[in-house]
Predict the structure.
Amino acid sequence: MNTLRTIVAVAALTACGLTMAQSGATAKPDAKAPAKTARPAEAKPKGKLMTRDELRTCMVENQALEDENLALKAKEKDVLAERDALKAYKAEQDKAEQELQARGTQLKADIEAIKVFGAEIEAGAAKMEKDQLKAKQEEYTTRANALQPRIDAFNKERNERVEKYKGFNERVDAQTKALDDFNERVETMQDKRDEWKKTCANKSYDEADEIAIKKELAAGKK
């Protein structure tokens, strides 16, 4: 007899601020087909036959479990798709962050070089000819003016990235909740399946009752 097992639980991403770390959730076995409601009575059944009401209850509960299993499989696809999208986005943003950090390091070095150049001009101004001092000052101004747009662009991109990461972290939080909810549903379904097995599995019943119940259930869906 086939038995139902829990569906694979997907890995969660966690993030905090601009530093994001991936963490994995405990994997669970793949789901398999739900168990059949019971077995038809043999020519010489062993033990007491299930009543029609008992069989009906078992069949209805089994169908509900099968429906939940199908719903979980569909939900699993959504959860996995969002996980993969977040992983890809994170990898892209990590690369961009590394590039931004490298530009920031170079920018700091260029700013420091300008400061050093300005200090040298100030220290040697008394010994310079007027024209030489003017040339140095103009060079300083040109270099400083060229540097300012780079500083502004860097700060703008940095601020934009902070906002983008806020949105990413919100998606991560939602993904983590979806994962928790998914796993909780899987565990609840497994508990119900285990309880169903205790009550319904491997019990004999009258096949005529099964046929009659199927007709009842089919009529109820119309």
Confidence is low (pLDDT under 50) at residues 1-45. Strands lie at 13-16, 19-22, 39-40, 204-205. The radius of gyration is 35 Å. The chain is about 70% helix and 5% strand.
